[in-house]
């Protein structure tokens, strides 16, 4: 297969972890006889510095004409204390999601047995946890009309959803559930919000197309509780943009494997793959960042092209490395640890 | 002191746990020489059955002319699967909050050493956890304009906040922080929402009035993570209605003492006090529900009248009962347990 992949390294540790994912992906390409054409482009604070905005048109052109985007991380501390600044890295993220039509954010949370003790939760609560959130990513209160009235004294944000937006996200949820344990949970706040009632009635109407899938409907506050109490009782969860933002982050810390969690953002034509961790500015350039989440994001990318064996080869290598202790210091528990680059090299060699 | 207290027992186990709180409050009144005039009124499913709506005008009149409201729980399973039904118990709740002006929901989360092992989190993560959320309760997306367009194909919910609404909530937050460890965390999503930016700038502007209080600003997704990772790093948190709904429920499960957590909803003139647990329909009438959360809500009520000794007397009695194992079956760990009424009797006798 011939693949054009846009490469958005971004800020902080982004470039370092992206380098390792490229190395491992190239090893996969070699082994399975694919050709990857990497197309680097600017994003985030790096793009603001270079051309004055976080998601330049040039970058969009490169992404839109690629088969997938591999993404590092964006964000820089100098923007952190001024959320109302005119130009900020996060705006690039939102613009990119919207312009590329990345409406479905896929956020798996699973456990690695060697990492269970890193979880803040008791072992018996998390063993076997393997759930996936599908978060709607281009609608809701993130993209509705927002502003001020009354000379700035009143602020508003509008949350809007159309039935079609709910349907395309829910369809991905039902389809994913069919490939897993056929359990789907629709998370909403239908006892208060009209948009949630639209979500619920739309999903309810789709149930008959997927008679094998058992659908449950739970309120977002109840899910926020049960995720901590019994995370392994969930499988596939679908939800709107803001609820997904909160709950996927909450879910990411329960497994103890947060530093390893990949994600995908899917649209009609193109997918973007990125680690869930941030740009971790303090670690920039120190060769200590854990590259595994980015490498597992590359695995998701191959799987999304239908290249299951390729994805599995990456996952197996990562499992191997974890079992053998070829890990960065965050996972070394005070024992021997390896650099970002060394972990990447080892994984590339063991593909 | 002469106190008029509206008594809203509500649904499910509500009446049973309220009875115990009345008994204990009467014991307090006797010991400290107060006079409590209880004024029962209908609410929730019970009110829908009796008069066709969940917060009848008659009930509002009784509440509005009282010094405080003691509330049990509302909700009945027959309404659960139809969130768009015309008349539902939760609507009564929202109407009550709005009409009584209960803009600040106070939700403490603390630990009892004898219950630490009930938490899904590891002991070392939760030891010493003692935090309070102040959730804005009469604004935001709960009460903004909502509806449908395009023949029902598009739904919208508007989130609106005025500076004055933020100020009165934040003021309570600063004041509470002054009585505790002087740490205040403002939770928002200022990197995306205009209402959050209003929250942040308003709180920032108030900082100079409380120079001793150290204020931090955190995004709601980050707080959803850190609450699970390091709950004992928080003290007082202030936030808007929907974020508060999600985060206070998340926080309630981390301490292991969820079944014991009280809450208060405060307005300009009147306070409402209620356990955070629900109406627990399966347990109705079985004399097994734990009355302690409701009894501790009564303690908050006395403290809110400035009657600190009275509140402490209740808390001491509850601690005593926990240490002596005078508990309902949810806390008995398979050992000897007592009925709802027996726990209430014991506490009333040991005031
Ligand atoms: C940075 C921010 C705008 C973003 C979001 O809220 O979507 C982030 O939290 C995420 O989840 O990717
Ligand atoms: C029942 C519901 C409307 C309510 C809310 O969302 O406020 C409840 O979850 C709560 O937190 O009191």
From TrEMBL, chains A, B:
GO terms for biological process: L-leucine biosynthetic process. Keywords: Amino-acid biosynthesis, Branched-chain amino acid biosynthesis, Cytoplasm, Leucine biosynthesis, Magnesium, Manganese, Metal-binding, NAD, Oxidoreductase. Coiled coil: none annotated. The record marks 142, 189 as: Important for catalysis. Residues 4-347 form the Isopropylmalate dehydrogenase-like domain. One of its GO terms (molecular function) is magnesium ion binding. Pfam families: Iso_dh. Binds 1 Mg(2+) or Mn(2+) ion per subunit. It is found in: Cytoplasm. One of its GO terms (cellular component) is cytosol. Mg(2+) binds at residues 221, 245, 249. Gene3D superfamilies: Isopropylmalate Dehydrogenase. Belongs to the isocitrate and isopropylmalate dehydrogenases family. LeuB type 1 subfamily. Homodimer. NCBIfam families: leuB (TIGR00169). This is 3-isopropylmalate dehydrogenase. The gene is leuB.
């Amino acid at each position: 297969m011939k693949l054009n992949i846009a490469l958005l390294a971004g800020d902080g540790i982004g470039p370092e972890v992206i380098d390792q994912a490229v190395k491992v992906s190239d090893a996969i390409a070699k082994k399975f006889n694919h050709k990857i054409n990497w197309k680097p482009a600017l994003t985030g604070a790096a793009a603001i510095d270079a051309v004055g905005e976080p998601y330049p048109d040039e970058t969009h052109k490169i992404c839109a004409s690629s088969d997938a985007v591999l993404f590092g991380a964006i964000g820089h501390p100098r923007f952190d204390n001024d959320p109302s600044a005119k130009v900020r890295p996060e705006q690039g993220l939102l613009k990119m999601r919207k312009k590329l039509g990345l409406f479905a954010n896929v956020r798996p949370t699973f456990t690695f047995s060697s990492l269970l003790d890193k979880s803040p939760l008791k072992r018996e609560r998390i063993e076997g946890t393997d759930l996936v959130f599908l978060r709607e990513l281009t609608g809701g209160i993130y993209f509705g009309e927002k502003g001020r009235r009354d000379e700035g004294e009143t602020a508003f944000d509008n949350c809007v959803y159309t039935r079609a937006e709910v349907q395309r996200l829910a369809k991905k949820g039902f389809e994913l559930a069919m490939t897993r344990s056929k359990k789907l949970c629709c998370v909403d706040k239908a006892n208060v919000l009209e948009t949630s009632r639209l979500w619920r009635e739309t999903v309810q109407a789709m149930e008959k197309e997927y008679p094998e899938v058992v659908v449950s409907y739970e309120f977002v506050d109840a899910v926020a509780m049960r995720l901590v109490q019994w995370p392994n009782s969930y499988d596939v969860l679908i939800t709107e943009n803001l609820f997904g933002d909160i709950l996927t982050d909450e879910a990411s810390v329960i497994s103890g494997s947060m530093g390893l969690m990949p994600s995908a953002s899917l649209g009609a034509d193109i997918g973007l793959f990125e680690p869930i961790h941030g740009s971790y500015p303090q670690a920039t350039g120190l060769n200590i960042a854990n590259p595994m989440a980015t490498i597992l994001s590359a695995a998701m990318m191959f799987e999304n092209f239908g290249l299951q064996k390729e994805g599995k080869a990456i996952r197996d290598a990562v499992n191997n490395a974890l079992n053998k202790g070829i890990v960065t210091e965050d996972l070394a528990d005070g024992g021997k640890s390896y650099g970002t680059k060394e972990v990447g090299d080892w994984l590339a060699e063991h593909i």
